[in-house]
Amino acid sequence: MQLHYQKELKIISRWWKDLQVESRLSFARDRIVECYFWIVGVYFQPKHSRGRIILTMVIAIVTLLDDIYDIYGSTEECEVFTRCMERWDRKAAHDIPEYMKFVYEKTIDLVRAFNTEVKWRDARYVPATVEEHLQISTRSGGCYLLSCASFVGMDHIATAESFIWVSSAPRIVCTLCTILRLSDDPETFEREQVELHVAPTIGSYMKEHNVSVENACEKIKELIEDTWKDFNHEWLTLANVQPKQLLERIFNLARTMEFMYKHDDKFTNCQNLKDRIHSLFVETFASTY
């Protein structure tokens, strides 16, 4: 398996290098290996090689978009970029498969959500409620797009009906999006207070309930636990509705997201992943024979 992963990493790294991200987007996070490490947790089996490669590329592009809006682009530049994305030929989209339509629509929705957060950031606007915050921030997390993209490499298992189902934003995907957003905020709250950044859900909870930071953090953690219960309920309920192989992709996205953001934002602070990445992709495994 390690040799298999190494071959895939070469393919993905070559693609990333050809994009010339380091020279053209020097402000962006160079996280292609970390992206692949993340996606190996979504599907590790050899037969899902194509799925791993596709989803790694998707999450890498989402990361670039996030950095453009979150770190580098001005309000005016982000507005122009969003309008350019919205002007893609929507008529042509009618002729593409359902799963491509969903990816197309969710990509547009993603940049719109990013752009709204840029406006919030620059206006120093704190959404009045957690619900108002999540209406945008769950979309900007990219989970709707990633959920659909995780089906793309599943061959015949993912039917047209499967893509129609996931494109309807079922509750299991919605709770996945909420888990990502809420899990990230407690770990990045202090850092984001130092820099100009979009207000986290913690700030909205403080505003909505007039409580301290400490109290808000605890309540957000409780909300994360409650959302996990909803997610697990959906996972068990859908067992006889959708193929388990597809549901596992969404389930594993949630598991890996919790790993990435629980106790620390490991994706941004990637030095905390160094040893794990080395042990999985580089370090020789001892033979048991």
What does this structure look like?
There is one protein chain. The chain has 289 residues and is mainly α. It has one domain (2-281): Farnesyl Diphosphate Synthase (Orthogonal Bundle), CATH 1.10.600. It has helices spanning 2-19, 21-24, 32-40, 49-72, 75-86, 98-123, 130-140, 143-152, 160-167, 171-194, 201-209, 213-237, 244-261, 274-281.
How would you summarize this macromolecular structure in one to three sentences?
The chain has 14 helices and no strands. By secondary structure, the protein is mostly helical. The chain has one domain (about 1-280): Farnesyl Diphosphate Synthase, CATH 1.10.600.
Q: Secondary-structure blueprint of this entry?
A:
Blueprint: H1 2-19, H2 21-24, H3 32-40, H4 49-72, H5 75-86, H6 98-123, H7 130-140, H8 143-152, H9 160-167, H10 171-194, H11 201-209, H12 213-237, H13 244-261, H14 274-281
Helix pairs in contact: 1-3, 1-4, 3-4, 4-6, 4-8, 5-6, 6-7, 6-8, 7-10, 8-9, 8-13, 10-12, 10-13, 11-12
Highlighted features:
289 residues, Farnesyl Diphosphate Synthase, 71% helix, mainly alpha
Radius of gyration: 19 Å
Largest sheet: none
How much of the sequence is in beta strands?
under 5%
Q: Helix count, per DSSP? A: 14
* Residue windows where pLDDT falls under 50 for at least 5 positions: none
At the fourth CATH level, what is the homologous superfamily?
Farnesyl Diphosphate Synthase
Q: Provide the residue-averaged pLDDT.
A: 89
Into how many domains do the coordinates divide? Answer: 1
Please name the CATH topology. Farnesyl Diphosphate Synthase
* CATH class call: Mainly Alpha
Order of helices and strands: HHHHHHHHHHHHHH
Q: Structural class from helices and strands?
A: mainly alpha
The total strand number stands at 0
- Named at the architecture level, the CATH assignment is Orthogonal Bundle
Amount of helix: over 70%
Ends distance? 16 Å
Globally, the shape reads: globular
